[in-house]
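Sharing a chain and its predicted structure for anyone who wants a worked example. Both blocks are below, sequence first, tokens second.
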Amino acid sequence: MDARVKPAHDEVKGCATMDQSAIDELAKTFMRARRTSERLDALPARLAPQNFQDSCAVMATVDKLVGEPIVGTKIAAKPGAEVVYAPLPAGRIFNSPARVPRALTPCQYMECEISFRLTRDLPARAAEYSEAEVFDALEGCAAFELVDSRFKDLKSAMENRPYEFYADHIANGAMVFGTFRNDWQKFDFTRTRVSMKQGGRTIIAKTGGHPTGNPAIPAVVLANLRRGTTGVKAGTFIVTGSFTGFHSVELDQPVTGEFEDFGTMEATIVG
């Protein structure tokens, strides 16, 4: 976990509409909510981000206040939708089996993902990166994202106020990574059985479900976003989206996830 990647928001086209005082105020509001577990209503108009540039400006300010190294990126690149992403700070990264403090993720939501880590640099350059180049530079693992929102109504923020949702680091609470492996390309994740269980209860079991089919495709999008600025460094974690959607879990009980024949992960939210 020694990758050091600065928040690369400069590849976003266009300009933020929020002034710096509003950006600072919203960042401090999010920081207070993180410290106290306070949950926010919809933001007043003067603090509400109006585009992804605004969201990025708020995230960058929060990251500066947190002061932790940025070790990865969460990226959503659904077909036909705006590409959005959020930095992943080191303090919210765990290895399976993990014990994650409830203070870090008080919403107690988890979802199953296939995540990636770069094995070599993808430097800035003029030429576009191909899928093959990016795929060959990745190792993959089974993972949990612990979803956590600073808003009272996460679903409403996602559906009705997306730029507020994005500014809140796209509701990332923490990541729990299983064992990384280099042979992930031999798996067809559209046909892979995925399940999440807690105690004797199966929370969800299904086949496939990633928005892009192959969960590595958003990593290609990220490489090409960053090729005009910073590039992407070896060791960077790349989180590309859920197979299962997020589900509520109980406190102090291990949750296990499995991508059949590929990998497993375990996490316990401890209070």
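Comments welcome. Residues 1-10 have pLDDT under 50 and may be disordered.
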